[in-house]
Amino acid sequence: MIIDSHCHLNFKQIKCDLDGVISRAVSSGVSLMQSVCTSMDEFDEIRAIADSFAQVYCSVGVHPLNVEKNAFVDHKEILSNCNFTKVSSIGETGLDYFKSQNIEQQKQLFEQHIIASQETGLPIIIHSRSAESDTVEILKKHMKRGKFTGVMHCFTGSLEFAQECIGLGLYISASGVVTFKNTNELRNVFKNIPESKILVETDSPFLSPVPHRGKSNEPSYIVHTVEFLASFLGIELEKFKKITSSNFFELFRKIPSCVKL
User: Fold this and answer.
1) What domain count does the chain have?
2) Quick one: which of 115, 47, 89, 60 has its CA closest to 252?
3) Suppose 240 and one of 38, 60, 106, 235 were both cysteines; which one would form an S-S bond, judging by CB atoms 3.0 to 4.6 Å apart?
């Protein structure tokens, strides 16, 4: 079993051939996909996709670069969508300073997602780009107020950042970026992450792994990331699949045990 812990099945590059994308994923050994929300106005579509496919669960939340059009979203609005059966997580949320836009709004909205995670017990999916220090500061502040857990998605940060996140009980997710030619430093970060804290994802339609780099990504391509990372870490492939799947179910506990087939 392979699980794509983070993809965007409602994005146009995928939904134009959604049946084919799901079919190819299943044929490639991908048993489960989590379709992640990036703006509140797309949630109904994401939920409908999850309801239409047994292999798909979903999240509810706002990407940090979408804060401007979601400026008035608070934890109550997020909570109002969490009772749907196939909502398994909160996010994606976090901080993205790469373009340095709406930083204070990003922080405020990130904190609203954390509150929603604390109140529901659902894990939070965290995006952090060029914002390691502030991400850790906000996480630590809220950890003092109440427990929550989650995953640093599409991790491309430093080893120190990874260790800080693991120390807070978070998981670290590897995307196709680990297969890229000039990412030795990132691969070495994953060598220092406990096996029990590693997840895998595509972030499709973005970040296609080698040998599909430059093409639109889809969940079936995750097999290349899994094979590459298992080999790099020196873990037998089937064992690595079991490790990452077990980690996924340990984190996303709302997904029923009957899915573990």
Assistant:
1) 1
2) 89
3) 235
- Domain containing residue 247: CATH number: 3.20.20.140
What integer pLDDT is reported at residue 256 of this predicted model?
75
Containing 126, the helix (H) or strand (E) segment is strand 124-129
Place of tokens 């047994």: 54
Rg from Cα positions in the chain: 17
Long-range contact pairs involving 252-260 (C-beta distance under 8 Å, separation at least 24): 252/5, 252/34, 252/57, 252/88, 252/89, 252/123, 253/121, 254/87, 254/88, 254/89, 254/122, 255/32, 255/57, 255/88, 259/31, 259/32, 260/1
> Can you tell me the distance from the alpha carbon of 34 to that of 3, in angstroms, rounded to the nearest whole number?
8
Type of residue at 102: N
Tell me: the pLDDT tens digits for 163-177? Answer: 999 999 999 999 999
Instruction: Please tell me the pTM assigned to this model.
Output: 0.97
